Amino acid sequence: MKKFGFLLFLVVMMIAFPKMADASSYSAKIYLDGQQINVSSGAKVENINGTVMVPIRIVSENLGFQVDWSKATKTVTVQDGSQKVTMTIGSQYADINGQRVQMTKAPVLRGGTTIVPIRFVSEQMGMQVRWDNGTKSVHLTSGNAGSNPDGADGAHTATVDGISFSDNKLMVAVTGNAKPSISKLGNPDRIVIDMVNTEFSDSFGTMNDYDEVNKFGQMAVSGYSDVKSVRYSLYNSSPLTVRIVLDLNQPANYTVSGLENGSEILTVALTAATDPSPGTSGKKIVVIDAGHGDHDPGAIGVTKKREKDFNLAMALKVEKLLANEPNIDVVLTRSTDKFLELKDRAKLANDLKADVFISIHANSGPSAATGTETYYYDQSDKALAAALHKEIVKAMGLKDRGVRYGNFHVIRETKMPGALLEVGFMSNKTDESKLFDPATQDRVAAAIVRGIKNYLNVN
Ligand SMILES: [Zn+2]
Q1: Can you list the domains of the chain with their CATH numbers?
Q2: Which residues are known catalytic residues?
Q3: Which of 144, 307, 359, 434 has its CA 20 to 30 A from that of 164?
């Protein structure tokens, strides 16, 4: 259980911080209980983006485990007593005594030889694995040769082995009996985790940014609405205390799990921005997309006005109103006259895990065509489109052309409910003058905000 937990952590680390891995492809040296393994000729050790891969022959000949290879299923089985690890060429998932576990790298075929990630295999087979980055070598320790995290004085000291942040969760890998106390502080907003009788492990610096002398480090966090950065330090030396601080952009709620039932991973999951159910304390994220921009003017009106300018004016007005809403965070895809690819507009909303996406446009057609249309892409968009449409039609006072299906990139590729507004026709004289009338724009902006709030059921 212990090993399994840390392994999962390693996998998360590799996914979260691929740049930490060494991308060079030198040959690493391998030591078993202090003795360098002489890799037989033809068997090449590879370093693939930081994962040291060894021919399966090393696992059987040098490490002494039973290895079976099935050509038919392309699987390698490594066995020692009751411990059994099965890996498949090209698959990142291994089977450990019936349990599916993800590896950092899938086994691959190299000129008829199967190469496997040595850390993964060795750890699963009960070995301790240490990577020496200075000498680019793997050190394996067999048997139960002592893990001894306790301090020399025999005090019950735990160690922090690694810290990562992904999927809006802080994960702290801990060995030993750590007792975290967690508190939420304001001014500036942050979450503080203190662990008494705990220090950083010797290997902590190989995985995390860490100043060994002053015993602190930090990691920048991007792509999350709540968290700015994570800092950590040996806050106190008597008693030894590790402090981890999550610097927040705004107050956020969290749940804590782990460090009980033998778990080695403390998880602090932030809940505020991603809470999907309306009416709770979590803030909703609304992305407003002003269509077109820069060299793409969109529709040109009867008096040569440009759709992109209407779209941007509206987005800015909606943003201003939403900024006053205590339960909503608003993000614009563009706040200036710049161009964005459609896929980047959708990606922004998806990356933010936004609750609502609204793309603002104005229509074009025969000069007689007039009125307001609102588009949805699939069933999950429909309620949002209807809530917005009802309000916008009232605010514009033009013909109600209905809530319609439309296969538009931005509402197709966004994962959250989305709607595309065609507020009025640039190609119609009456519509165009309304679209560019500041008072009408204010009314439509307020209508969009009402529609959003009704849909999200927030006050
Ligand atoms: Zn448009």
Answers
A1: 2-141 (3.30.457.10), 158-270 (2.60.40.3500), 284-456 (3.40.630.40)
A2: 422
A3: 144
